[in-house]
Amino acid sequence: MQYRVYDPEKDVVAAHRIWRETGWVTSDEPEPGQKLVLRSGRTLVADIDGEAECLTLTVPGAMRYLDAEVPFAAVMAVTTSRVARKQGLAGRLTAQAIALDVADGAAVSALGIFEQGFYNRLGFGNGSYEHWIRFDPATLQVSSPARSPKRLTREHARQMFDAIQRRTRGHGAINLHSPSYLESELIWDKSDFGLGYFDGEDGALSHFIWFNAKGENGPYRVNYIAYGNRAQFLELMGVIKSFGDQVRMVRMREPAHIQIQDLLHHPFRSRIVSQKSDFATGNDATAYWQVRICDLQTCLAATHLAGAPLRFNLVLSDPITHYLDGDAPWQGVAGEYVITLGPESAAQPGSEAELPTLTASTGAFTRLWLGVRPASGLAITDDLRGPDDLLAALDRTLRLPAPHLEWDI
Q1: What 8-state DSSP symbol labels residue 342?
Q2: Residue 181 has pLDDT above 90, yes or no
Q3: Which DSSP letter does residue 403 get?
């Protein structure tokens, strides 16, 4: 496959055509947000007859693994034009982009999916369920804000980016290291708005919410929320409550470690009364992102677990190899390893005859390592096999919080 780096002057029209044909945009001309996002990371294109017909975008960042930071890259766009379908371009171009990210230091890759199965062939496995809560803001049982928030606009993009980088993050949460990517997200929809507080050092933005608003009575959607402590989170929820006189429904992704239902007054009654309306309350749970390990040694070196060390052989398969050119700078992580999980973890090439053996695909082992599901469950639903005693030991050792990216990709 021949690929090249996106040229913002030469390829902007072709990129816009691809995105129109895939339904990502509807405008006749390239929009400012589209132009900006395609310059926010590594954008690759594959040509047919001299025109870009397939495009991928990846953005570098970091993933939090318990208290450690793991180098990360997100696949933010994979799009193929109508004339290039079913030619294998999307899979091969995505694999090549990931290989280049790994060569630059990324140890983990993640992406959002249009359907389960396509990206499994590149070694990805399902992430956690994300809960999107729909509620009447008037039913929030939090205090109304004691002070007014400041109005935020797209001109505050850099301050919002910095606040997101500093926010409280849970296990699995990512930061993307591209201010221009966030800026591109903020300029897509003219109905978006933000509110926040500048309580940080030297008056920096400390906590904020960025909304998408529809109509006089909503619904409102929380696109971004960033805070550094419990008091800031509750203050932001109080800001949402302040809309309750007018807005009938707010939709937001449930933050890690927090159950929004705890903060709602009569959630079941609200669901019954509002069902089948435009403002129906409730809770939707979907696993719409996938993740894969790209550097096993780096990921295991960042893994620090309580308890006695557990050692075992790992036979790891990685289907991404079939999509990579022979001269790609990285060829996946397939191989045989001796794995140690404990206060100091490691992955060493080879095997030891006296150790039990776990056989897994890259996607399944990534889900195990990250804590998406325990070994005993993955042995039923995914490509992971091993002796029952080893699966039970893995269940005991990898007792991790549910991972959440906390940033839509």
Answers
A1: S
A2: yes
A3: P
Helix, strand or coil, per DSSP, at residue 286: strand
Residue corresponding to tokens 């042995």 = 379
Total Cβ atoms within 10 A of residue 316: 22
Q: How many residues does the chain have?
A: 409
Long-range CB contacts (within 8 A, 24+) of 58-62: 58/97, 58/98, 58/100, 58/101, 58/109, 59/176, 59/177, 59/178, 59/181, 60/101, 60/104, 60/106, 60/176, 60/177, 60/178, 61/174, 61/175, 61/176, 61/177, 61/178, 62/174, 62/175, 62/177
Q: Percent of the chain having pLDDT more than 70?
A: 100
Q: Are 68 and 302 in contact (CB under 8 A)?
A: yes
Of 165, 238, 244, whose CA–CA distance to 197 is shortest?
238
Residues 6+ apart with CB under 8 A from 182: 157, 160, 161, 164, 176
For the entire predicted model, the pTM comes to: 0.94
Cα torsion for 181, 184, 185, 188, to the nearest 10°?
-160
